[in-house]
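Person: Please comment on this record:
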Amino acid sequence: MPLVTYLSRLARAGRPFVPVLLFISTGVQGSQPEPCPAFSDLVKEDLTSYVQKRYHISPNANLHISESSAVGDTCYQKVRFEARGTAVFSLILYVSPDRRFLTTNLFDAHSDPVEEDRRANRETALKLAQGNPMSTSAAGAPVTLVVFADFQCPHCKRFAALLKELSLLTRLGPPLLILFGPPSG
């Protein structure tokens, strides 16, 4: 007979009873979550091998994981791969908790994407303006154009002529700051 039925019969019969609530704890509630497992040497080798093949990196480039860290309070890992050969290679990827998936972006749905973009743009602008870059006008213009060009390249020379025309046009409109950076390749 179910307990509810039994208690109902006792109550109708006028018999006194004291209800007792019994809680059984399974130990799940309030227990500490398991820590995220660290990368084993085998996992590091597998990830490095995959990245080397995916990005066509020479085996002589000595590709390795230079750093890894947990993303927030999750078991996703932010991993930096680096290699030094004829050129320097650096790549940040995010690894899923099961170590199966790699991605270049990990979006936090609990944050404001507009504010994240603003923060990323500010950081990029600060990095580009570090040092003493060559520029065509005073700092503080509302629009900044960053140009990565080789001053000996014929295509860059033609583009420079377009920039000169553009800077003349902007004298009539809002100011434009043109920063020149080193060639990207």
